[in-house]
Design a protein that fits this description.
Length: 390
């Protein structure tokens, strides 16, 4: 299928600039068995809508256990087992890492797609706010992992980290269309569960960390969605082939990201865009309303109050982060053959506090003001949460 080059994707994300994610911790560790995990427990309460009462929701949102094994200084295995909402079980990562040389590795298995930052660094103490951003949920979409093979490494001379991988694409069509206008590509993540593939997709990321306090990167994804309409297809039947082709969407994402910390100040921002081709045929065949361009961005400012305002009562391991974030995500930025649904153009303003009582333990509280372009009405949501990572 013909590809269409997309627009630009940019991010600036808040977290410890030198932080490793869970897989990197295992790979960089000593030989032998490594055990860890992270968890997120949430309370969400929507404000009352007129006379309608809304119950609060309490949820063990996710509990993830890490099991890794370093066979020697060159070979490591990484796995993560995730329990969501108590009753759902997923494998989040499962891959083998082999160091070809000191700063270059080959990876194979179920891996996180290196798009943006939060898909790679999504442990609760690494981001502000009780919930992950919806830009990362609906546009990228976090937590996005697929089966494949890749290379990862770094150039110390140029202060660059890089990743490149070939993976299976999204599942776009089973017996019906999987993608939608509201949630974009999110439902198409195959997650390593008997994934299938026609041709591999490409995902890549480069990060530059050569300036103090700054981490700057570029991410890209290029490929086609997968479709079960091709199973058992008679390639000599032109009508059948044309029908199956209608179930495929070409997907391209490009992005730039950066993180900047200076003293107590932490700055965050993100922009991403995805250009989808063949959406007119896909929507006509499946009855869906998928947009042809998806965009999302947010910018955020955070400040450690214990460092700048109340240092006398803080310990070296405690932080009190006050933050504010503006976020917009639009899964109908552009469409083909259908009418734009302005309710898919959504904006959220979030402000709150995160009390880090230890490097891997945090209490969170925030308030969100939510709106969309189809209405002047704004809705509020209050969130409390606990996040851990060890």
């Amino acid at each position: 299928m013909k590809k269409i080059l997309i627009v630009v994707f940019a991010t600036v994300l808040l977290s410890n600039l030198n932080a490793q994610n869970s897989a990197e911790k295992i790979i960089a560790g000593n030989p032998g068995l490594h055990i860890g995990g992270y968890g997120q427990i949430d309370f969400n309460l929507n404000e009352r809508d007129g006379t309608i009462h809304n119950n609060g929701k309490l949820d063990v949102h996710r509990l993830v256990t890490f099991f890794g094994y370093n066979f020697n200084e060159k070979v490591s295995f990484v796995s993560e087992l995730e329990f969501e909402h108590v009753s759902e079980v997923y494998v989040e990562q499962a891959f083998l890492d082999y160091k070809i040389k000191k700063n270059l590795s080959i990876n194979a298995g179920l891996m996180l797609i290196p798009m943006g930052i939060q898909n790679l660094y999504h442990e609760p103490p690494t981001f502000n706010g009780v919930e992950r951003t919806n830009v990362d949920k609906y546009i990228i979409p976090t937590t996005w992992r697929e089966m494949g093979v890749g290379l990862s490494g770094r150039s110390l001379e140029h202060s660059i980290n890089y990743q490149a991988m070939l993976v299976n694409g999204f599942n776009g069509y089973n017996d019906s269309g999987v993608f939608s206008g509201k949630s974009g590509l999110r439902s198409g993540r195959q997650k390593g569960a008997e994934s299938y593939i026609t041709y591999p997709d490409l995902a890549a990321r480069v990060s530059y960390y050569g300036q103090p306090g700054l981490n700057f990167g570029f991410s890209a994804y290029l490929g086609d969605s997968e479709s079960k309409a091709y199973d058992g297809l008679d390639l000599a039947d032109e009508n059948a082939v044309a029908s199956a082709d209608s179930t495929i969407i070409g997907i391209q994402m490009i992005g730039i990201d950066a993180r900047y910390n200076k003293g107590a100040l932490q700055l965050t921002g993100q922009y991403i865009t995805a250009n989808l081709s063949n959406t007119d045929q896909y929507n006509e065949f499946t009855g869906k309303d998928v947009g042809s361009i998806l965009t999302g961005y947010y910018y955020e400012i955070g400040y450690n109050l214990m460092d700048g305002i109340i240092p006398s009562i803080s310990s070296d391991s405690e932080e009190l982060i006050a933050f504010a974030r503006y976020e917009n995500y639009n899964t109908h930025a552009e469409v083909e053959g259908i009418t734009i649904n302005d309710s898919y153009n959504r904006t959220e303003i979030t402000f709150g506090l995160g009390f880090k009582v230890a490097p891997g333990a945090v209490f969170k509280a925030d308030y969100q003001i939510k709106s969309n372009a189809s209405s002047d009405e704004e809705k509020g949501q209050f969130n409390l949460g606990v996040g851990i990572w060890f």
